[in-house]
Amino acid sequence: MPKRTEGEGTSRRGHVWTADKLEFLERYLPAFQLACKRFWNEQEGHTNTYYVDGFAGPGKNDINGVLRKGSPLIAASVKPPFKEYFLIEKGLKNVNQLKAELAADEYSGIRQHIHLQRGDFNKEVASILRQMQRNLPTFYLMDPEGLELEWETVRQIGDRPKADLFILVSAGGVTRCAGSPPTHDRVTQFYGHERWRPIAEGLNPQTVMRQSKFEAFLELYLEGLRGLGFSHVERYLIATNSKNSNLHTLVFASKNGTALRIAEDILKKIERDKQGMDRLF
């Protein structure tokens, strides 16, 4: 992995869990393409599948001083390539940096299929969905910083029959925002309802007594995914802070049993590899 040097462009600061996320994508996306082999268009040299990254970032992650390809560059490196790539990023600097990264020669063959756009994914999702054939397999990465992803966006995606989601659920962010009235609307947009309030106020003892609030808020979100017809892998990537408190959870969800089995296997391997490294040190 290349070390970061002075003068290089913007990169997203990463953490240990970021490395796990990138590892999952590096393993899952090629497996996704292989599992979708019946959708391959060998004459045109790509698969009839889509990749959507709602919070794409600058393209590179800085993890303890080591630069790694971020999610959009990992996706753009997968062989065979996707039919189309939809990359949405709100920050201007990030958009410009990602555009520069995608100008590299290694992406020249697919550049005309990459749609990089500055904007709010919640406002752009309807337009993106209209540009994609409804029944083609699509991988959606939705990895915001916190509660930026609105439930209405997830609901629209959930209307698609062949959607794989790798989605960040910031139950820690909910815990913080639920305790502050000025941010209550943000929590409601995140869930699409106000059933989070009894958990926040400790009025649902059947839930809160058996789970931490983090777990209860996560389960409430997963309940919503199941309501859209998704199943989810029970093994998650959980981000923690320096005090080992849970912050976010990355959840894989799909309506396809094969996708769920592949994701479960990859997450299990990542967990096993980490345990092996812990034993070495």
Secondary structure layout:
Blueprint: E1 12-14, H1 16-35, E2 40-41, E3 46-47, E4 50-53, E5 60-63, E6 66-69, H2 71-77, E7 84-89, H3 92-102, E8 114-118, H4 121-130, E9 138-142, H5 151-158, E10 163-169, H6 171-178, H7 184-191, H8 197-200, H9 205-208, H10 213-227, E11 231-232, E12 237-240, E13 246-254, H11 257-280
Parallel strand pairs: 1-5, 4-7, 4-9, 7-8, 9-10
Antiparallel strand pairs: 2-3, 5-6, 10-13, 11-13, 12-13
Q: What is the tally of helical segments?
A: 11
Total DSSP E strands? 13
Order of helices and strands: EHEEEEEHEHEHEHEHHHHHEEEH
What level of helicity do the residues show? Answer: 40-55%
Q: Describe the largest sheet.
A: 8 strands, mixed
Low-confidence stretches are: 1-8, 277-281
Broad structural category: alpha/beta
Portion in strands: 15-25%
- The global form is globular
Ends: how far apart?
21 Å
Radius of gyration: 19 Å
Overall mean pLDDT score? Answer: 88
Protein architecture, described:
- The chain has 281 residues and is α/β, with parallel strands linked by helices.
- It has helices spanning 16-35, 71-77, 92-102, 121-130, 151-158, 171-178, 184-191, 197-200, 205-208, 213-227, 257-280; strands at residues 12-14, 40-41, 46-47, 50-53, 60-63, 66-69, 84-89, 114-118, 138-142, 163-169, 231-232, 237-240, 246-254.
- Strands 4, 7, 8, 9, 10, 11, 12 and 13 form an eight-stranded mixed sheet that branches. A three-stranded mixed sheet has the order 1-5-6. It has a two-stranded antiparallel sheet with strand order 2-3.
- Strand 7 (84-89), helix 3 (92-102) and strand 8 (114-118) form a beta-alpha-beta unit.
- Helix 1 (16-35) runs antiparallel to helix 11 (257-280).
- Residues 1-8 and 277-281 have low confidence and may be disordered.
